[in-house]
């Protein structure tokens, strides 16, 4: 029986265990998207994970969603990330950067750019903009066909910068209502060109982004995160098994490092996707944000269902030594929700090992 503590060969990386630290927004970067010395400490503390996937990193200023999130679209940002990746590697870890383009989940008050999206359809909700607090989501500007191709290139360019910054690879954020999933969504995407309409049209942007980044840095350094049927940020998806079955079929020949799937749909659909995907399959059992972190038993259950690796998000916030807590049966701490995004080192660097 496969265990969370078994090793796993992921491309050129030998992972010491099957736990993946999932990406989580922490909003601790500077106003211009520069990670700090505290960022390096935070990730280094969690380097015993089989693989770390960083918080969402904007591949362009246009793609930024929240204030104080880090970027990978300038030389200064690349330079600032190197101490972070060096710290993780020095502590024996492996780290991918999650490239997250907000699309319509952005506001001009945050970065001065009007958001772009597949179609000019606003999400039904409010966005945090920083100094002006919560404001209604604006109607985004619909991308032209040529501009869509430009956004594909944005991911490839950021992928190259990611490797220059010392990351082991990238994860395309195709989940949780951001740009890639907006193209998949029948609610956010009402285009009538090659990037909309049919299932083939709606999956095209995701496939082209994966192709472009694989060409730029190597397919074994590229993963993609998906949330089939997920409803975050007013996402609507129809024919989920057909949509994601087609997407898996189109991605499979690329030889990507992995797909990282949130449990946002029925188990039988997830298991069917696992069976259809020929490579490494990461499951994040927590799905959309819920009341409890995922525990060890659920992770072991999904390994028995065929997953190769298990993503843990909230459990890693307060338990930087999560692997050892699971291994020894030590109790898990609960994270203080008030400090998730408040900035500073409180609730960021002050969660210690179970040995202290």
UniProtKB/TrEMBL annotation:
Extract the Pfam families matched here.
Oxidored_FMN
Family annotation (InterPro entries): Aldolase_TIM (IPR013785), OxRdtase_FMN_N (IPR001155), Oye-like (IPR045247)
Highest taxon of the source?
A: Bacteria
What residue stretches are annotated with the NADH:flavin oxidoreductase/NADH oxidase N-terminal domain?
3-331
Q: Which PANTHER family match?
A: NADH OXIDOREDUCTASE-RELATED, NADPH DEHYDROGENASE 2-RELATED
* Protein name as annotated: Alkene reductase
The organism is Streptantibioticus ferralitis
């Amino acid at each position: 029986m496969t265990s969370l503590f078994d090793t796993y060969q992921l491309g050129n990386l030998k992972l010491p265990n099957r736990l993946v630290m999932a990406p989580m927004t922490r909003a601790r970067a500077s106003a211009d998207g520069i990670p700090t010395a505290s960022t390096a400490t935070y990730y280094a503390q969690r380097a015993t994970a089989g693989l770390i996937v960083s918080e969402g990193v904007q591949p362009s200023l246009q793609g930024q969603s929240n204030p104080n999130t880090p970027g990978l679209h300038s030389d200064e940002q690349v330079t600032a990330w190197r101490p972070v990746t060096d710290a993780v590697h020095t502590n024996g870890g492996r780290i991918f950067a999650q490239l997250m383009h907000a699309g319509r989940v952005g506001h001009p008050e945050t970065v001065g750019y009007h958001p772009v999206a597949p179609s000019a359809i606003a999400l039904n909700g409010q966005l945090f903009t920083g100094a002006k607090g919560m404001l209604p989501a604006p109607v985004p500007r619909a991308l032209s066909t040529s501009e869509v191709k430009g956004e594909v290139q944005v991911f490839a360019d950021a992928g190259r910068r990611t490797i220059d910054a010392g990351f082991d690879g990238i994860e395309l954020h195709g989940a949780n209502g951001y740009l890639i999933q907006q193209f998949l969504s029948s609610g956010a995407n009402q285009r009538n060109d090659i990037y909309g309409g049919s299932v083939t049209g709606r999956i095209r942007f995701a496939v082209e982004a994966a192709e472009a980044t694989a060409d730029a840095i190597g397919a074994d350094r590229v993963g993609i995160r998906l949330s089939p049927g997920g409803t975050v940020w007013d996402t609507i998806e129809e024919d989920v098994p057909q949509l994601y079955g087609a997407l898996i079929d189109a991605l499979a020949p690329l030889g990507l490092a992995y797909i990282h799937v949130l449990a946002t749909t029925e188990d039988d659909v997830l298991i069917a996707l696992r069976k259809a995907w020929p490579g490494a399959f990461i499951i994040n059992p927590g799905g959309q944000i819920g009341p409890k972190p995922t525990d060890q038993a659920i992770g072991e259950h999904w390994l028995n269902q065929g997953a190769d690796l298990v993503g843990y998000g909230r459990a890693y916030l307060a338990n930087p030594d999560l692997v050892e807590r699971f291994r020894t049966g030590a109790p898990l701490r609960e994270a203080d929700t008030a400090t998730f995004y408040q900035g500073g080192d409180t609730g960021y660097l002050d969660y210690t090992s179970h040995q202290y």
